Amino acid sequence: MEAKKRHSLKGNNRKTIQSVRKIHRFSTLVLFLFLLIIGISGIILGWKKNSAEIIMPHTYEGTSSDLSQWLSLDSIYTIASRAIADSVSPDLLVELDRIDVRKEKGVAKVVFLRHHWEVQVDGATGTILHTGKRRSDLFEDIHDGSIIDNLVGTPNDEFKLIYTSLMGIALITFTITGLWMYLANGNRKSQKKKRIRS
Asked: How far apart are CA 69 and CA 196, in angstroms?
């Protein structure tokens, strides 16, 4: 009787392990490209501040961290827009993405939509400190899938939400199924050793 129970338990274990392996393999085949993209873009983003300004410009320093001495954000944006037209191209759109104020460094980073150019402006004097391409923003868009929302023009980041949710679920699935297979494999090996000893 006990031998039958053991045999049926082994059969159930085998079926479970086979099912887990199928889930693991199928998920890998379907999501391989997306996970590769996430991995590569994640490595690039991890190095963005240590890339000799290839991925993202350094933050330059202005003259004053006292905001009461600063120009208005509207003036800073106008200065940055002129700088883009003069030093990069007069044909580039100067639609504002954001102004990243670094009070402690006395600088405002004006970042433009679409082309990811950035102009760093001294908050107090309006001097252009640096003009550079923020490739990190493009890699962030690739990493989280929002590049598709930008291309298609979805209003509420629908693709990004679906994409990041699916990739998160996939990574959790890989972790659980991978651990399950590892533990099941280790358990089988230890049982074989016990049988050999006995």
From this structure: 82
Q: For residue 32, what pLDDT is reported? A: 87
Q: 132 has which bridge partners?
A: 118
Per residue in 159-194, pLDDT tens? Answer: 999 999 999 998 898 888 888 888 877 666 566 555
Between 124 and 169, whose confidence is greater?
124
Nearest to 134 by CA among 149, 148, 115: 115
pLDDT of residue 184: 79
pTM listed for this prediction: 0.74
CA distance 171 to 157: 21
Which has the closest alpha carbon to 116: 164, 84, 159?
84
Q: Which amino acid is present at 75?
A: S
The number of angstroms, rounded, from the C-alpha of 127 to the middle of its chain's C-alpha atoms is 33
CA distance 43 to 70: 37
Strand partners, 96: 112
Strand boundaries in 33-191, DSSP class E: 96-102, 107-112, 117-122, 128-133
- Could you tell me the residue ranges of all domains in the chain? 2-47+143-197, 57-133
Handedness of CA 62, 64, 66, 69 (dihedral sign): negative
